[in-house]
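Render this sequence as a predicted structure.
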Amino acid sequence: MPANLLLLSTADTDLLAAAEADAVAGLLAALPGANVTTLMGGVGYADVARELDTHSYDVFHYAGHARFDVLREEASGLVLADGLLTAQELAFRTHLPRLFVANACHSAATGDVRLQEQAAASRATRNLVSGVLGAGARAFVGAMWEVDDQAAATFATGLYHELVRTGGPDGGSIGDAVRRGRRQIIADHGDGQPAWAAYALYGSPWRRAW
């Protein structure tokens, strides 16, 4: 079954993010039947909206930076060249991918549970995780806190090595891929590198990305 993948890196001067996106593109290009679309540098909201409104992707991978506002979670999002890509904006897209990977610091942050309880009556407050899943994505992978850039690239490499390996008819799960990404950080950077614990999977770990 062909896999359609959208890879996005927004920072022209962020060499590690660009290198990560290139490495992921190379890995996924090795998957038989993979269709990989890459948006690199100077990417704005209109570019992302156009892709998600006109194509149905299995995987969306973002390599860059995110901002999280604990007091106004709905104002959090992924950094684009012309602003933030928020959960509300993603919710209005025609298509959302099965697997949404936001490889950026704080992308998977969901705030202080006490603040969430205080605002329980207001469903308008939606962080990136709940917004993406609520809009129809099968799974969300991201970092709950700040992670080292090198470790982030290592996680992505491990994640997609597993997805490519298990992308055949025998299957494999998103959970397996996240576990391999975490283990790859420990293998390459040592168990003293805390980034392995920062990565969270929201959604069923037993489901496949495509």
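Summary. Residues 113-125 have pLDDT under 50 and may be disordered. Residues 4-203 form a domain with the Rossmann fold fold (CATH 3.40.50.1460).
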